[in-house]
Design goal:
heterodimer, A: about 270 residues, three-stranded mixed β-sheet, B: about 110 residues, Immunoglobulin-like, about 0% helix, SoxZ (chain B), Thiosulfate oxidation carrier complex protein SoxZ (chain B), Ig-like_fold (chain B)
Amino acid sequence: MSIRYGSLAVLASAALALSAVATFGQEAERKGIPAPPGHVFKTIISGYQFRTKETRALQDDDLENPGFLAVERAADVWKTVDGGEGKSCMSCHGEAEKTMKGVGAAMPKWSEKLNKPVNLEQQINICRTEHMKAQPWAFKSKELTDMTTFVRFQSRGMPVAVKTDGPMSPWFEKGKEIYYTRVGQLDLACASCHEKNNGKFMRADFLSQGQTNGFPTYRLRDQRLVPLHERFEGCMFDVRGVPYKPLSDEFLALELYVAWRGIGLPVETPSVRN
Amino acid sequence: MADKPRIKLPKEAKKGEIIQIKTLVSHLMESGQRKDAQGKPIPRKIINKFTCEFNGKPVFSCVLEPAISANPYIQFDARVDEEGTFKFAWTDDDGSVLTAEEKIALKA
């Protein structure tokens, strides 16, 4: 028999601290994909590769992976009628397995109508408010994160493929600027940690490249799925900065830019992280 | 506790075979140790017991404690000597019980 204990996380991080000296060996084993020409990395590596084998095993088994509770919940909601139009997601989009394949891998995406990029959470709420005449779901609500996970799961294994040219390019540049700007009392930029120091041991964790291919991700610390902008908030908060607001233009630009930093990585949603 | 539990076991087994059963259920597992924003303790609400029966006979059971993570995952082995039905039950602190069933056949 085996049961997962909350306190095991504490033991696990103690064990990690001891094994920090063995980092080199582990680093050599981290598999990635070759980056396209002109990219910041030579090898693009998923956050999965930086996690312990226990955490990876949890992600690899679709039954054990607690993220699938959300996938199953949202699969039901997909078919449920809601709002003034008397429609469900399925009324317009049919079988998600077919129509949503690849959609999550290409977000955020340019919206002609809004003349700006939209991400998955925003698109889902646009569908709810405009197409269904239903209430939008709050950011971080179980409903919105479940549905985001469900839609993104339909792209699992497909390469991250955001478009960054055309009308997206000023957003890309804005995201890049934010990524390299030092913020907070600790005066650190995203790049200070995820570009210069990935592979090192920090905050009881191995610093990864800060890739987004696994989002929303089941965080063992929170014992729930965490949407991407909440992770961005957390990283800014940790350097004692004032985070941008979830779904703000700043975080949207950042989402686009960071997705590009992971271009070609397979979508892992729902991934499992510390 | 409305979500359907997730259960994995083989559809069929040889007589006498030992099979692995995996279960995952959605639950907050509020430990009773935490406080809310106003500093008031959040009352404990966990799944405190899990049982599994096969054709009415107990196969496995356990008591769960507040230190167990949200969405408890329980895995165990069982020997299958005949075809039949596994019944699973998760008991909540509030007295409600979530149940599920899975059938297994014998391989010819």
